[in-house]
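B., you asked whether I could sanity-check this one before it goes into the benchmark set. Here's the sequence:
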Amino acid sequence: MTDSQWTALKAAIEGRSKEPLAAFIIDSPWLPNWYGMKILDYFESEELWFEANRAAVETFPGAAFIPGFWAEYGMCTEPSAFGARTSFPDNEFPHAHPAIRRVEDIDELEEPDPTKDGLLPFVLKRMERALPRMEALGHKVRFSVSRGPLNIASYLMGMTEFLIALKTEPERARRLVAIITSFLKRWHAVQRERFPTIEGIMVLDDIVGFLGEEDFLEFAKEPLKELFSVDLPVRLFHNDADCASSIAHYADIGINLYNPGTKLSLAELHERSGGKLAFLGCMPPRDVLAAASAAEVAADLSRQLASTPASARVLLSCAGGMPPGVSTANLEAFLRVAAGS
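And here's what the prediction gave me:
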C-alpha cells in the first residue's frame, strides 16, 4: 500500500474520513487467473508473483489492496511449519494435509521456529527480495499476516476432527491452540522485525464462525486477544463465516477492522458490534462481484451505500477476500461508484 492509501485506511477506521475508501483483500484465489497464469506458476515464480501484484496496483489505482504484495502459499503457509504435507495442483488451490493423526499426538507437539520451519522462510525471502521494487512503485509492507490459531488447528487435525476434539478432548484442544498461538505471536514479531514499516496486523480465521458463543469464549477469545494485543493502528480480522456468536466480543479482543461474510448486513454488523468496529465489506463476492454484470455490481454497491447507517465506519469492499473470476470490468464498475462517478 502507498503512503496515501495507508493514511486513508487509518482515517477510515478511526471515522475521520469523509470520502469512501475502496479496499480489497487480494491473494492467490484471484490474482493468478486474473493475470492470465496458472496458480502454481504464481507460487513458484517470484517474478510472476511480483508482476501479477504490480499489474493489480497499476490497473486499479483507485483501490487499496490488502495486505498488498502478499507473499503466501494459500492455506499451506503456517501448517507447513508443523510438518503438514502440502499439495500444489497446477491450477487449483493448494492444500495442507493433516499432520496430527491421533488426538494423543498433540501431547508430543513442539512449537516450530518461524525463521526456519516450513514455507515461512520462503515467505520472508520473497518479501525481502521484492522490497526494493515495491518501494520503487511507492508501496511498503504494512501488515504482518497469518491464518488464525483455530484455522491452523483445523488443517493440522482435519476440520471435523478438530471440532470434535473441542468437545471430547478439550484440554488437548486447548493445548494445541495455545502452541499455535505462541508460534503465531513469534511469527508476527519476526515479520515486524524484518519489515519496520509494518503498522498493521491481519489474522484470518473462519473456524471462529463454526463455534457458538460458549465455545468461542472458551477456545477462541483469549488466543485471538493474545494476537491482537499489539500497539498498532490497524488490527484486521477476517472471518467470512457466521459471526453472530462472536462479533460482540471483537472490540474487546483488540480488533478494530473486521472483514465479514454475507450472513449479516452492514447495518446489522454495526448494531451487533455496538458501533465499535470498522468494516471491510460486504458485497456478496461470488454471486455479485464475480458473477453479476458490471451494471449489476454498480447497482448493488449503490444500494449498499444508501442503506448503510451514517455512523458506520465502512471501507467499500466485498465480503471476504477477492473471489476467483472477478473481471476487470466489474472491479472498475465498483470503483467508479466508490469514487462517486
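One thing to flag: The chain has one domain: 3-338. Otherwise nothing jumped out at me.
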